[in-house]
TrEMBL record:
Transmembrane segments: none annotated. The keyword Glycoprotein does not apply. InterPro entries: Fumarylacetoacetase-like_C, Fumarylacetoacetase_C_sf, RraA/RraA-like, RraA/RraA-like_sf. The keyword Transmembrane helix does not apply. It comes from Microbacterium deminutum. This is Fumarylacetoacetase-like C-terminal domain-containing protein.
Amino acid sequence: MTDDTPPAREDPRFGALPGRPGKIIAVHLSYASRADQRGRRPADPSYFLKPSSSVAASGGEVERPAGTELLAFEGEIALVIGTEARRVALADAWSHVAAVTAANDLGIYDLRVNDKGSNARSKGGDGFTPIGPALIDARDVDPGALRVRAWVNGELRQDDSTAGMLFPLPQLVADLSQHFTLEPGDVILTGTPAGSSVIVPGDVVEVEVDAAEGQSTGRLLTTVTQGEAAFDPALGSLPAVDDTQRAEAWGAPLPVVERGSEATETKRHPQPDDVPSRVARSTTGSPLSPELRDKLLHAPVAGLSAQLRKRGLDNVTIDGVRPMQPEVKLVGTARTLRFIPNREDLFAAHGGGYNAQKRAFDDVSEGEVIVIEARGETGSGTLGDILALRAHARRAAGVVTDGGVRDWAAVAAVGIPVYAAGAHPAVLGRRHVPWDADITIGCGGTAVQPGDVIVGDADGVIVIPPSLAEEVADATLTQEDEDAWIAERVAEGHPVDGLFPMNAEWRARYEAWLAKR
């Protein structure tokens, strides 16, 4: 310990505790409501360890790490050990508990698979164990009549009591003492009931524990922020999620298939459509420079189309879409989202919770265009006013979908450029399943990759490979100047023969005019 390192009792992170805990032991599954939600009831309690560096005080912040999506809260009752316990009897176990308080056992499901049950990385991050704000004397309460509640943004999400636990609190203390010594200041996180779910930056989580006798810990408050530091792939495994992790993080049940008389969770393996060749996406937003963006804002889509055709690219227009605001120009880089045809079992697995559609709109960056593959199916909406508002708040450049739009007038009123195939009042699940994002897709008969340059005006929408964007923009603007000069000559009464396109004589006149400008 250095001279400027405060002792544990002065460290604000441990303000609700007697000192820095030597051990934090957490229970995997302990409430019947949570176990039933997961579809499995353990015969015995099981545990994992959390570092004391993960402890945080009430009123603090927790970062959702960059590159992750599934940060989940878990409101819990925490026990603070008061006297040493080693091989204690069940009848004596509660006497070794000094205090009860509230805790939030935060975790990142994106890292859970790689942890293989240890939860070292998924639940060990700094600030991932808020505790407090006040202690309840364990001698004054009935361990079988404690209640834990959790709120997200003021909405009650969890409400259960120790009467609903599979393993009573004294049993947890006695069981752990069989395996190692519980020391004064150690903390036991006793598990979470049903209702745990995903939280996102900006959310505020509150957890409170109270006793039948009237005592309360007060509300333990934590605010979620967005982390900026990315994980280094050269050092270890990266965050990864699958349908099982998403379902468990959000608290949604997995589809069940009946096999004879036994119900079994559906096993999911990557399908061909799940693992296309992915294109890396910049995490710093649009790669368009202000100068290139300005050029594209002044370059008409018709002119860009002509220049791309000269370079051998003729299949670059997103067909069948029309602008909701023809007077507003669309310029940005593609962020892709893919819908597949609706199938009830697949929608049950992919359509609810924090699905691909919601993730795309939540994560779009300034200057990006969300381009949606809906297969030209207009019998359902692919976005509505809420998602349009979210894209606008994220400063997205616009949205292009070859499907329908719900709340057409309300979406138009948001002000963000939207190109769509038509209006339809039905929700997503009527025709579509949100499947994946940031992959190569087909929209309006055209291939679109993440990072492609998207330009739209009253004539339509065009897709430009990023490597050609500057060249094509410059050539289009040059051609626009030439066409404007030709239009002036036609307005003067000159016939178009030989002028459009220009023959050698007219070309010489044009070059002379340019030299004098």
